[in-house]
# Entry
Amino acid sequence: MSHSNRERGILRYDWWSRVNHWLIAFSFVMLVLSGLAIFHPYFWSFTGLFGGPIPTRIIHPFIGVFMAFFFLIMAVRFFKVSLIKRYDIQWVKQIGDVLSNRDERLPPVGKNNAGQKMVYWLMVTSVPLLLISGIVIWQPYFAPAMPRLWLRVAAVVHAYAAFAAIITLIIHIYSAIWVKGSIRAMVQGRVSKAWAKHHHNLWYEEEMEKQRRVEDAAKREETAGQQRQQTP
Amino acid sequence: MRGDQINLQNIIARSASMAPSPQERSGGVEKVAKLIDVSKCIGCKACQVACSEWNDLRDDVGECYGVYTNPMDLSPNTFQLMRFNEYEDEQGNLEWLIRKDNCMHCAEPGCLKACPAPGAIVQYANGIVDFNEEHCIGCGYCVAGCPFNIPRISKKDAKAYKCTLCSDRVYHGLEPACAKTCPTGAIMFGTKEDMLEQGAMRTDYLKDRGYKNAGIYDPAGVGGTHVIYVLQHADKPEIYNNLPSDPRISPLTEAWKGVTKPLMSAVIGLSALAGFFHYAIKGPKEEPEDDPDPEKADADRALDEKSPTQALQDADEEGRE
Ligand code: HEM
Ligand code: SF4
Ligand code: SF4
# Structure
């Protein structure tokens, strides 16, 4: 746990990525809690968190639309780093090593590893499904106008997609707790070089390359300036 | 008292509830049924009026669409209505089929299965399915769950309403208001057994009169109902304004509210636990402490060892140089 990232860390998430992420995270957790309350009587007590059963039912879809809006922005911005690469397949094949923390055996990966990419793609599929099906069953605004077959299909889709999204979320949160330094990266933005090299080697090399180029350019600028001074 | 759930001691099914309700006092309670004999109905709508009267319902005055059906649909203020249909039979004779449309009080109610609010829908030992609006959250799931398209959500209070089969009257030994008021005896009320017998008698009579497909509508797909019809053409229930020929809880509703939900709930709980135990067994995933560049690693370590204020001061000085 080097603290060097305070001074010399690499910027992993700029301020807007962080704010965007946490807006989604807070609203998503509220969605899970309010949704599960209605999902099964096991979770009925969660209605107490939202001021009772009726407020829970009313507030859930509004949070949903809020979340979906910010999710769309993040999905677009994180699209490129989430494309599947060849090394991702190798990484998935070695999932046993991943889980057992035998990191030295893993192939180097880019800014995101295959697990993070899977979280991305699962969310990118389930959030639109949740949004569309949620709107169909939304009382009293949209549901009264929907044929009953649509209501039934949407209810099933919403419940199943919510299940997929919740499991994904649990894996996502657990990974953040498990991989030390990731929560800090999302809160403060920077990671140490050691962290970057260890977990995302290709991305680290890229960043170092960028830094070198910037430094080289600065140096060239400097020598050019000196030469200008020398020649009257 | 009207509309309230008056007997809380013989509820045999309760929405979104895992523990059973009190059972002891269901002894000796017989299943009831309302028998609607379509062949006897003259379409006077006295039952509609009686229903509004007893239940304190006043629907808005609507428009006339050129048919006798009025209002055109059920609503939170219309628990029942007479649907009129002009049907031409095989011989070219016109038949006026008038069906009293209201909750069927299914033995296996789709509304109750779908409802997520504990106690918003209950089923009594006598077979009546009742909505308790006090517990309703207005989600509309019962609308999706019902195979007969019965529940309606109020725009005024966002709660679901439907025919109660006058559960309040029945509890006190009275028959439902519609049955009480019907001038032709087309609506009868009693134990389900008696009503089936009565229905069989009427069916025989109708068969004698030439309605060879006369029969009782007590659909098995929903476990039978506590509102049953005598139909002249029981082979074609659809001609009675789309009475479903084989109503059952939709497979979609089953997929939504069946075993999958407790299973998914368990998996959600277990996956959170699995995370905890994985951490306990394998421990956190950490990077090595040092900067990968050996020269910088020394500097970083030195930085770490400094107090934060010291580090800031040093950084300031570096900047000034
Ligand atoms: C994206 C926009 C979303 C909208 C518009 C939306 C809307 C709805 C609506 C209308 C309901 C019915 C109950 C109610 O009216 O409150 C509902 C239920 C539910 N929602 Fe959402 N929702 C959204 C997102 C989510 C998300 C992200 C989750 C969790 C991952 C979620 C989980 C649930 C669950 C578990 C239920 C209960 C489903 C059931 O009873 O089968 N929803 N949602
Ligand atoms: S007809 Fe519909 S509302 Fe009535 S008991 Fe059956 S499922 Fe419930
Ligand atoms: S609207 Fe229907 S399903 Fe929803 S809580 Fe009320 S009675 Fe239950």
Summary: Chain A touches chain B through 57 residues (CB under 8 Å).
